[in-house]
Amino acid sequence: MFSTSYFTHFLFLRQVKILIFFLKYGIFKIKYRFIKETCAMPKWKEIAESVLADVREGRLRPGDRLPSDSVLAQQWRVSRMTAHRAMQELQRLGVIARKRRSGTEVVAPERKRTGFVAVVFPHTNDLLEINYRRGISAAIPDEVHIISCDTHDDPTREAAYLKRMLHEADGIIWFPTCAPQNNTLFQRITETKTPVVCIDKAPEGVQVDLVATDNYTSSLHALRALVQTGHRHIAHFTQHDVWVSSVRERYQAFADALADLGDDDVQRWVRHFPIAQGMEREHLIQLATDALYALTHQQPPITAVFCLNDYHLMATLEACARLEIRVPEQLQILSFNDSLPLLPSIERSVHRIVQNAVTIGKLAAERLLRRMDGEVMEQRVIHVPAQFYPAEISGTLLQQRTL
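Below the sequence we write its predicted structure tokens.
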């Protein structure tokens, strides 16, 4: 038999072990709860991550306002100090800017230089664009590489290239299609931190740097030169794309030149020939032939034609050949002409407005480089005068001039 003292001792030891077990288990629970609470994301970080996610996924865009620290604290049910800590972190990351009086705004993130400039053009083999590129290449330093993007004058390809170049290039020189379906994208691009300079023309309603020919003044002066030699009935062969700045400005010069003669019904002299991608050359020539036949057989007949560009000029010259109209003896033609090597025989028979494409390309590149270096400038349109080369008629030559 166990003695009473031994049994008492046994119970005591058992109680001690039970006490030790519960003490250990309790301490473990305390430690587990402490570790769990320590590893949980701090509330200020949770707030900051939420804002970052909204920025990454496009729910918040540069320029959007954020709530004040007090409002943010109420929304997240935290102290104002916690909300302020979250905003401090976002400011450190360059996601927001805190401005006195105007509040807190989302800003576009800073990007590292890639060393590339994108040139987004409709074609790579058009002579006008080749000369634009010559000017661009002359101004871009050797350490900056040029990415050439040929959109084929296709708005869908243009949109895809622009989205891609926003991430791959430090700046973009852009000869736009001006397609209305891309206007929303165009506006978003100008709001990013990637500098963009348009060349030749700009999308309607989009505020952007533009370097282009002074289309209006150049056209008006050349048309007035025709008027001074006795022409009163002048046709205009153009496109329907009035949302394209160059088309609109050349048409407006035509309308104003005829208005100076007292002609308020200029539309009777205007013919629109669409220049669509994949359009048959023969179809364009037939449109010009039909228009020219009607305009030269009406009363009063036209004595001159103002062509929008080389495509309309080519079609008009072919139409004159088919209708046996001698140029410039029977009909004089004024046209923007940037592809003389393709039409060498017209040099003395057509009044030509030639754009200073190399200069335009150089100025566009210089402005882009200044933007890329962080220079703060107002967006502006830089107009470059064109050169007027008059036709030789009966041994006489209209005065050559810079327009």
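The CA atoms of residues 262 and 335 lie 23 Å apart.
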